Amino acid sequence: MEQDASAALDTFPKWLAHQAHARPSRPGMRHKDLGIWTEWSWAEVAQNVRAYALGLMAHGLQRGDRIAIIGNNRPKLYWSMMAAQSVGAIPVPVYADSVADEMAYVLEHAEVKFACVQDQEQVDKILSVSDRLPNIAFVFYDEPRGLRAYDHSRLQAIEEVIAQGKGLMLADPEANRRLDAEIARGTGEDISVILYTSGTTGRSKGVMLSAGRCIAAARDTVAFDGLSDRDNVLAYLPLAWVGDHYLNYAQALIAGFCINCPESPETAVEDRREVGNTYAFAPPRVFEGMLTRIMIRMEDASWLKRKLFHYYMGVAKLWGEKILDGKPVPVLARLNYAIGELLVYGPLKNVMGLTTVRVGYTAGEAIGPELFSFFRSIGLNLKQLYGQTEAFLFVTCQKDDGVRADCVGPATPNVEIRIAEDGEVLYKSPGQFVGYYKDPEKTAETMTPDGFVKTGDAGFFEKDGQLRIIDRAKDVGRLKSGALFAPKYIENKLKFFPNIREVVAFGQGEEFVTVFLNIDLVAVGNWAERNNVSYGSYQELAGHPQVYDILAGHVAEVNRQLAEEPMMARAQVHRFLILHKELDADDGELTRTQKVRRGFIADRYASLVKALYDGSTEADISTEVTFEDGRKGVISARVKVMDATVAPVAAMPQAAE
Amino acid sequence: MLYNVLIDPFVQMGAAPDLFVQTIWEGLVAGVLYALIALGFVLIFKASGVFNFAQGMMVVFAALTLVGLHEKGVPAWIAVLLTLGVMAILAIAVERIVLRPLVNQPDIILFMATFGLTFIIIGLGEFIFGGEPKQMIATELGLPQGTMRFDILGGKVIIQKIDVAAAVIASLMIAALALFFQYTRIGRALRAVADSHKAALSVGISLNQIWAIVWFAAGIVALITGIMWGARSDVSFALQVIALKALPVLILGGFTSIPGAIVGGLIIGIGEKLAEFYWGPLVGGGIENWVAYVIALVFLMVRPQGLFGDKIIERI
Amino acid sequence: MVQNSTISPGDTLLKVDHVSLRFGGVKAITDVSFDIRKGEIRAIIGPNGAGKTSMLNVINGFYHPQDGTITYKGATRAKMKPYVAASQGIARTFQNVALFKGMSTLDNIMVGRTLKMKSSFFWQIFRHGPAMTEEIAHRRMVEEIIDFLEIEHIRKVPVGKLPYGLQKRVELGRALAMEPELLLLDEPMAGMNLEEKEDMCRFILDVKEQYGTTIALIEHDMGVVMDLSDRVVVLEYGRKIADGTPDEVKANQAVIDAYLGVAH
Amino acid sequence: MLYRESGQFKKTYSADMQVFPLREDRVGIAIILFIAAVVIPLTGSNFFISTVMIPFLVFALAAMGLNIVTGYTGLISLGTGAFMGVGAYACYKLTTYFPGVPIVIWILASGIFSAAIGALFGLPSLRIKGFYLAVATLAAQFFLEWCFVRIPWLFNYNASGAIEVPTRWIAGVPVTGPTATPMTRYYVILGIVVLMTWVASNILHGRIGRSFMAVRDMDIAAELMGIRLLPTKLLAFAMSSFYCGVAGATMMFLWYGGGEASDAFNINQSFIILFMVIIGGLGSLIGCFFGAALLHIIPVMLKFGLPAIGIPLAGATAEHINHLLVGGLIILFLIVEPHGLARLWQITKQKLRTWPFPY
């Protein structure tokens, strides 16, 4: 990684020009399209972006304009960001799967002048809310499919814009100089991107990130993990999420490694296996999904394979992490683990596409310890990091040798962390955001007078200097008895079981802790099929007595684990129920990145929460639901409520404050 | 050259009518035997849609068993009954081991399975009864011996009594089978199964039972054919090639009709003998074993579905 | 998609005059005449056994009618030969899916390209040079169809393993690979659920709009027929009982009787 | 278990369309070729080479020929033996008239004659299908068998009525005839088989192969897609007979060295090769090798293997057991896996790829 005097490189377009110059022939971007991987070298990427920028300038894109980016991970959409930044404009990525009016709020709030979208579906969404977006001058689309008949006065294919740019380049040499001048005008203070966070409370806020700060943060972490242009990453996370923008955009431009775009979201798993990514980043939900799939498929495997699998998983549990951390391990165990690598772990990683992963991160939500150590024990160098959009992701991250399941690591280089008296984590980092777009009061609210940013999460430092996140600051509460109540901590423990998909914990100011449980249709359906339990619908399966017993077992197990931890022992789950419907983002119960919106759920299912605490054994509930194609409907059900077996709590002193 | 291929043979026919009649008779006899073998094929194909390539071998096996038992001191008629028992066991075994596991496989797979069966029967037969040819015990079974002479048409025509017996028995059996298929309960069930296995199953006809019966019936036909065939020439596995001769007969007569098998057998028999007798010398003789196929081939080009088969309408 | 025919949209692409088809005593089609204009979606409807599929087989050259003529792109013939129909740009899907079970989705659609592939046997032996460049060019065209029908995820799956809805889509892909001018669809949506039907309708409309292909559509779902088709011809017991725009046909008493069953 | 697929992605269509896209498969094939070309000649005794390896390669080539017409195009042919005969006699006549030309050229050229005759007997395949077609090829089998005996010109009026293989050299080394060592004969036939397999694979993975399979799976649909049935079927018969012809020529010149012609190309030979294709796997090239290996090695083991380890076995009973075993194997395979050993091989590879998950 260059340590030369690259201080002058303080904006992403400059880094792009640098990469095109430093490693012109190295692969910059790949996209699986029409059955094969098309590849662009860094020189070709820069070439296309320059032409694209000229084309956009010809359409009247000026410095400071906002340009929306809506769609899946596709090269032309990444180029749109680069081209916009070359002209000094500010890209505003939006979630591709958000509903029309959600998208309208963001576009309207950001006063977007242009939009680069993926296909007809997104164009239709924009056209359906065009009345609320007066100042949209032009919409550019990547896939022309079905758009031929549309009126092209304010609509154009990105391909044509690039062609126009190429034409300008040839026709008038002056255009090149004008573009270089624009790029040179860019400085570290320019806003390089506005990312709308999927706020768990209230409307999403536009986080402004400046170019200089993003680059500084990215360069620190590229050095930290030793990323080079030999690395490969699969871009499959939503464009609007800070994870994708940091990893697949900022770090790629700095380290010069290759961004691989999958053919379509459905084929992403298969494409990951094909391309063999060396640097992976995924929210815990993805690892949970992987683990559930592994467990279910192993149950169907033949007796021999199952025996072999469970035996070597045992070996991995014992020695896996120690070997990965380089700790001393007896030779015999190391040999046994090597056989396991050949027979089980190697093939397992191969089928999951993790064989070539050198560095893996998980963030966005706290990850259950068992899930985390499962992947590390089979040799995947998975590490935790803690961050948020306002910090341009990295706040803390674990070194290769300092990995712990229940902590998120020490502060990232050049980041200062302080714990406020109410336990909230504050940080000052090179990559922190400039502020919330058009929302100065909110910005002031989240900043402390001396320039630290409030994370909104509660946590404390362990003895070895690693930060331990308990929960959302405002969610961390006290039981009536004063015992600490961290809902997320309990929820993650329950979510480790494949049969449970989502959990919502209640207990703030109550006698004891209670939970809503969501079954995982795939896992429980598979169990039902094998024990020929018949069920007509999700609701029927969720209410099935045998399913209740299984989940009761899980709750009892979690209670036993909680009982062993002094801080959490008195926050065991006393009563629980299984929800009759899956919590869904379309109904507003989850955010776009599948995080639970606790407040919204509490008042929507108030009757159920009351039943949990008034000792009744069942409760009626009817809720309004939006179906896939937008129609509204009402689902009502009678939900059973059960008591959970609580583990005896060792006599212990009053909870330490 | 063209003269003695096209015209000369017919001239010879006219010149020596008695020789002509003699050849016709030889053709008829051979035709009857081909028909008998073909009958075995038709029986099984009609009932189970399986083209049983092993039918030829069953003929040889039945004959060998009969002769083998007799050699071991079993009186003739009891040996016949015992052989029938052996054929019954073979039928059930085939149904159980071969047909049942392959029940819904495409026809080509079942056709290939009967190839396997052919080899098993050869192996079994040779293993138990040794490979050398054996003499059929025609006299012990009370079949007429000797020949009959007729001085007609200015010459003499010699007819073997055994051939007459064969013709009579064959026609008796054909009549019996026709009646069996048409009027008995099992016969109707057989025809139902032939049309569609699923339909037959839906009305409660047990497929396995039917197939066992059909293979046993084919076993009986095989035994009688074996006896008739054995009486004319010794019993050995060389018959296998002759069993192949039943294929053109089936092509001509169509796979599913009994009258078709008979008429087809006679045509091939007579056609073969005439060709051998009159056209054979022109090209050095021995054309008997391939001319049958050529006849069938020519016929097939004209009517791809054979004499009595119904026109194949392909629906998509 | 090279449209080399001199027929402009709206003109008659195919005309069937007084066609009658008999199998022995069975009269499948009796004296039916109708035309199909270029660029339109022509629906052929009627109760079961009305002779719809047989009519497609006549157009396609699979059945040869006893009398009547078929005029296609100006050339009038007493009977069409399958090879001629295919090379003149008539492609077809089948009522109960006629896919090649022994091959994958990709190979099935590639078979549609066979007519357009000309490389000599000599180069095929080495699978190099012209044979390979041709194979790649046609593979690229097939990939566009796979992308068009959104079946990337089953590209290498043997078709025997696919669910019914996807098999129908692969068959449409195979027909499109022949770059047809006239596409005969034989109940493309039979046995599909609502969502699959909507997808198939979208594909059919896209084919018409993007490739300009003329489509003859046999369909039972009246909703689909009324939405998609420009003109409808109604057959019953092998005879034509109505011909016209969907609304005209819907109001026609003979059609109502045919469907609601009136003693004949 | 052995497969590490992640990281193997394709950037071009030609890479994606190659016969063995996975690195592990390519390594596998390389190993097999290495064993065949180096390990076996070094370790195998002359007896092993001349009675096991050479016949195995001849039968594999013949099985490949039959597989093209029966496995890939779905047309049953019982005339394999006769077509091999045509190849053998064609090669014999060619080398007698033009002794100077290297023998390998004539071995390959002889295929052209049997291809012509194969196509001729393929003509009826347009009008007749399925079992009926077996008759056309049976006619070919018996007619050609009759010709081999009746037309002395074919065997140069030799007194023995059979081909007497003359000695032919390549670069000074005797390749055919009594003085040729098993080793040289093995290398020549190995070269021919590898070349022919490569050509067959090329053709069958291209347009022609797809047309064959289309005709096999649903000939009506194939016809309506513009594939003309007769030319395709004739090409299948021609290619198939070409392979059988070359197999016949190699059998006579590189293996038998002049044995009695009549029993080499009779109907039994056709049956044996048909069984090899069935057990090996219809519609798969690797299946031909499996089938040939299995159905050739069993009789050899019975004849020579068992007595070697002390079980007294008269020649005749070996023959009987061989019949029993072959028949039993056919039925067993048709029940266990109708698609033969090739499918079992494919399933094991698939299992290895999805290890430890169930297939």
Strand order of the largest sheet of chain C: 6-7-8-3-9-10
Give the N-to-C terminal Cα separation of chain D: 12 Å
**Count the strands of chain D?**
2
CATH hierarchy: architecture of the largest domain in chain C: 3-Layer(aba) Sandwich
Instruction: Give the overall pLDDT of chain C as a whole number.
Output: 88
What CATH first level of the largest domain in chain C would be assigned?
Alpha Beta
Largest sheet of chain C: 6 strands, mixed
Q: What is the general shape of chain D?
A: globular
Give the radius of gyration of chain C.
Answer: 19 Å
Helix-strand pattern of chain C: EEEHEEHEHHHHEHEHEEHH
Amount of helix of chain D:
over 70%
For the largest sheet of chain D, list the strands in their spatial order.
Answer: 1-2
> What pair of chains forms the biggest interface?
B-D, 46 and 44 residues
The portion of residues forming beta strands of chain D comes to under 5%
β content of chain C, as a range? 15-25%
Let me know the average pLDDT of chain D.
86
Gross morphology of chain C is globular
CATH superfamily of the largest domain in chain C: P-loop containing nucleotide triphosphate hydrolases
- Order of SSEs of chain D: HHHHHHEEHHHHHHHHH
Helix and strand composition category of chain C = alpha/beta
Count of DSSP E strands of chain C?
Answer: 10
Structural summary, described in words:
The complex is a heterotetramer of chains A (657), B (316), C (264) and D (359). Chain A is of the alpha/beta class and 657 residues long. In chain A, the strands form seven sheets. A five-stranded parallel beta sheet of chain A has the order 4-3-5-6-7, sandwiched between helices. In chain A, strands 23-24-25-27-26 form a five-stranded mixed beta sheet, sandwiched between helices. In chain A, a hairpin with a 5-residue loop joins strand 19 and strand 20. By secondary structure, chain B is mainly α. Chain B contains 14 helices and two strands. The model of chain B has no long low-confidence stretch (mean pLDDT 79). Chain C has ten helices and ten strands. In chain C, helix 3 (105-111) runs parallel beside helix 6. Chain C is globular, with a radius of gyration of 19 Å. The model of chain C has no long low-confidence stretch (mean pLDDT 88). Chains B and D meet through helix 6, helix 12 and helix 14 of B and helix 6, helix 12 and helix 14 of D.
What would a concise description of this structure say?
Chain A is of the alpha/beta class and 657 residues long. Chain A is 40% helix and 22% strand.
List keywords for this structure.
heterotetramer; B: 316 residues; mainly alpha; ABC transporter involved in vitamin B12 uptake, BtuC; two-stranded antiparallel ribbon; 72% helix; C: 264 residues; alpha/beta; Rossmann fold; 2 domains; six-stranded mixed β-sheet; 38% helix; globular
